Amino acid sequence: MMGINWLGVVLAIVVGMIVAFVWYQKGPIANAWEKLTGVTPERIKPVRVRSMVQLFITVIIMAIGLAVVIQLAAEATGDDSVWAALLVGLVMWVAFSASTLVQHNAFELKPAKLTIINTGYQLVLFLAMSLVLGLL
């Protein structure tokens, strides 16, 4: 019977939020992202609260989704190792996140560098959250 480790979900949410804040803090990545998107702290200020709420909600959904799929994979394969959890996170990133971002960014004529920054963030996010879930 499938059971979700809710402590793992909560910790994955915390880690997901930390990854988001660290990835987009002032520095080379954030500076390049700002330049490519035109989104500056001043420009986002009026919608900052809404953006943070949306981030939080999507990280919650992601943590629950990863927990469910990691648990299903563990039950199906008999492998509940950290490596199996990381593999699930990698597969979910490739299948859902990276593929979607690459498609959208290509058709929206976004620069390749922006696609790399955003898919890189998503990869780190998926793997960090999967790592937490795999460890617990």
From TrEMBL:
Pfam families: DUF1761 (PF08570). Keywords: Membrane, Transmembrane, Transmembrane helix. The chain crosses the membrane at residues 6-24, 52-70, 82-102, 114-135. The keyword Membrane applies. The keyword Repeat does not apply. It comes from the Bacteria. This is DUF1761 domain-containing protein. The lineage of its organism: Bacteria, Bacillati, Actinomycetota, Actinomycetes, Micrococcales.
